[in-house]
Write a structure and sequence with these properties.
It is built from 22 helices and no strands. By secondary structure, it is mainly α. Among the domains are: 72 residues, no CATH class; 151 residues; 93 residues, Methane Monooxygenase Hydroxylase, Chain G, domain 1 (Up-down Bundle), CATH 1.20.58. α3 runs parallel beside α6 and α6 runs antiparallel to α8. The protein starts with a helix and ends with a helix. Helix content is 79%, strand content 0%. It is found in: Cytoplasm.
Length: 680
């Protein structure tokens, strides 16, 4: 049936015959049909799946019909038909998977198109597929009486035979599921994949138990070598555990021929046949006279000139063919070398691009460092402002009775400044987080550069090995040419050396075989190197995309911090301006209070010597004059830098105090002095 599907490139003939079979009335026949159809889906032509999809509904109806029978083959046929339908749907949704599920790691990545969503959905479908396989496995075992040797009976073997196909499918599905889960854990959070891990652990325990039970059955021991799963399931939370995973390999030994099915050939007949074959080959090369009497030298010397010429021409033709093959081998090696050099150039260009990206990342890190230095300076300015506010608060507490209202303002300022300090601490923390993220980016860039260096070294070593292989081929070619020249001279000198010439020709053929094997090995190495380079290129592209995403994230965080910092600056400037305005109003009230006291009757009635009051007035006037100078300097600094409020606030408060005291002292001095000096 399998050969027929490949011959007609489809399964039309198979289904035309199946449609005439009483599958709905004979459970054993339906069971054997499922076994044959399973083999066709695995090993038949690719169009078997396409031709079978039109009968999918009929298989579903037949499965439901056999599901009503709870004894015999009824449940077995129902579950097997569900498995076949699941297999057909899986391969229809995922056409990259062949029927026998044999794929390389690269083909598995291509099946998911390097998209995490596709890998997620593909893992779910594989879980469903493997679940159907395990259900059939368990149903067959539960239908057998394991207390007896059922595997050696015809009835037991009829039920166990399809499990060989199930074991082949399960080994591949388990391997692919493990690899896909490791790939998903490298891209998604562990909590998101908790359901996948739970379902995998359940199927792992079932599959391990079924493999162990199957390996102990005598029926499977001579037909298939069943692998054993590891003692513990893989730890998907540890990425390095993927290197410890060993793909389970199912080995089907070559079927030994039955002694009853092959005729026994007598040893004498075999010896006679082999001798006759050797004689015919000898006659074809050296003529019939050699085989009739190999030691008749007269007959050998009597060989015609035409036979000698024909033999020489035949040897010349073989030598020319060998030279042509050697030339082809040399050309293929040269093409492989050119391709490897081109690939090395591409890798060097990619390395230069990565270095450029690294330089850009370093420039951005320098910019972040500069921003951090500015934030530190602003923090120092804030600390200076805090110290200034503390000094103002201390003075306000010393003059609490006179400056009660100013004390409240100072308290509000301290509270607002504490809020600013907390906000500043948050900004500093965010900057620290940004610096840590930047350090992670630099480490990843360094690791990427190291991996590029290793790839370059491997490519260089491969190039050297290929050069050595080419040199070896050249030396062997020169040696073969020398031997061919010696062989030609020997043919021209004597016909008696025919046996030696045939021996040398055999040696040349062996050398040709060795050269062909060397070239094949070289081609395999080139293919392996190409696969490795492709894998490295995919890894580099993924690393580059992740680096770009991280850089964009850092840039967005930096912009958010800049906007937050700008808002904090504006708020600080507004609060400083409000503080300055409040201090100025309080100073104005102090001066107004002093002016109001000039007309106070209690003040007008004060007594004292004019000299003492005059000296006190002069001292207060000098202090007020010095305070005016300091206030002028602080005011000029404030005009040049609106943020320099720390030096202006103390001068403003002290200036109001000294001016008020000077006014009061001047009024008192004028009251006790004579009229004319008092007016002056």
């Amino acid at each position: 049936c399998i050969l027929g599907t490949h011959h007609e490139k489809g399964a039309q003939t198979f289904w035309s015959v199946v449609n005439r079979l009483p599958l709905s009335g004979n459970a054993v026949l339906c069971w054997k049909f499922c076994h044959v159809f399973h083999k066709l889906l695995r090993d038949g032509h690719a169009n078997v799946l396409k031709d079978s999809m039109r009968y999918k509904n009929e298989l579903s109806d037949m499965s439901r019909m056999w599901g009503h029978l709870s004894e015999g083959y009824g449940q077995l046929c129902s579950i097997y038909l569900k498995l076949l339908r699941t297999k057909m749907e899986f391969h229809t949704k995922n056409p990259r998977f062949p029927g026998n599920l044999q794929m390389s790691d690269r083909q598995l990545d291509e099946a998911g198109e390097n998209d995490v969503n596709n890998f997620f959905q593909l893992t779910v479908e594989m879980f469903d597929y493997l679940e159907c396989e395990l259900n059939l496995f368990q149903t067959v075992f539960s239908s057998l009486d394991m207390s007896r040797s059922v595997s050696v009976t015809a009835a037991g073997q009829c039920r166990l035979a399809p499990l060989i196909q199930v074991i082949l499918d399960c080994s591949h599905l388990y391997d692919y599921t493990v690899k896909l889960l490791f790939k998903l854990h490298s891209c998604l959070p562990a909590d998101t994949l908790q359901g996948h891990r739970d379902r995998f652990l359940e199927q792992f325990r079932k599959l391990k138990d079924l493999f162990y039970r199957s390996s102990n059955l005598q029926y499977f021991k001579r037909l298939i070598q069943i692998p054993q799963l590891p003692e513990n399931p893989p730890n998907f939370l540890r990425a390095s555990a993927l290197s410890e995973h060993i793909s389970p390999v199912v080995v089907i030994p070559a079927e030994a021929s039955s002694p009853d099915s092959e005729p026994i050939m007598d040893l004498v007949e075999m010896d006679t046949a082999s001798q006759s074959l050797f004689d015919n080959k000898f006659d074809d090369i050296f003529g019939s006279s050699f085989s009739s009497d190999p030691f008749n030298f007269n007959s050998q010397n009597g060989m015609g000139k035409g036979d000698k010429d024909r033999l020489i021409e035949q040897l010349h033709g073989e030598i020319a063919a060998l030279k042509e093959e050697l030339g082809n081998f040399k050309a293929e090696s040269a093409r492989g070398t050119v391709q490897l050099r081109g690939r090395a150039s591409e890798l060097e260009a990619e390395l230069a691009e990565q270095r450029h990206l690294k330089q850009q990342a370093q420039d951005e890190s320098e910019f972040l460092r500069a921003e951090l230095e500015e934030l530190k300076k602003q923090r120092e300015d804030s600390e200076k402002a805090q110290r200034s506010l503390t000094e103002i608060e201390r003075r306000a507490q010393a003059n609490e009775q006179r400056y009660g209202k100013l004390k409240e303002k100072y308290s509000e300022l301290v509270q607002s400044h504490a809020d600013l300090l907390r906000k500043n601490a948050e900004v500093t923390k965010q900057v620290t987080v940004a610096r840590q993220a930047q350090g992670d980016v630099e480490r990843e860039k360094k690791e990427l550069e190291d991996s590029f260096q290793r790839v370059s070294e491997q490519a260089q070593r491969k190039s050297q090995e290929q050069a050595e292989v080419l040199d070896t081929l050249r030396r062997e070619l020169a040696a073969s040419r020398q031997e061919l020249q010696v062989l030609q001279g020997t043919l021209e000198s004597s016909t008696q050396a025919g046996v030696e010439q045939s021996t040398r020709i055999t040696g040349l053929e062996q050398e040709r075989d060795s050269l062909s094997r060397a070239v094949e090995q070289h081609g395999e190495e080139v293919a392996a190197l190409r696969a490795e380079l492709q894998q490295l290129q995919d890894t580099l592209s993924l690393e580059q995309r992740s680096s770009k995403v991280e850089l964009e994230t850092l840039q967005s965080q930096l912009r958010d911090k800049e906007s937050t910092e700008q808002a904090l600056r504006q708020q600080l400037a507004q609060e400083q301006l409000a503080l300055l305005q409040g201090t100025a109003r309080e100073a104005q009230r102090m001066v107004q209070d002093a002016l109001g006291r000039l007309e106070d009757p209690a003040h007008l009635g004060c007594t004292g010597s004019a000299g003492e009051l005059c000296n006190c007035l002069l001292s207060r006037t000098l202090a007020a004059s010095e305070c005016v100078e300091r206030l002028r300097d602080a005011h000029s600094k404030f005009l040049s830098n609106r943020a320099a409020v720390g030096s202006l606030l103390p001068c403003l408060a002290l200036f109001a105090h000294l001016i008020s005291d000077t006014l009061v002292q001047g009024s008192a001095t004028s009251h006790v002095a004579p009229m004319e000096p008092a007016d002056r």
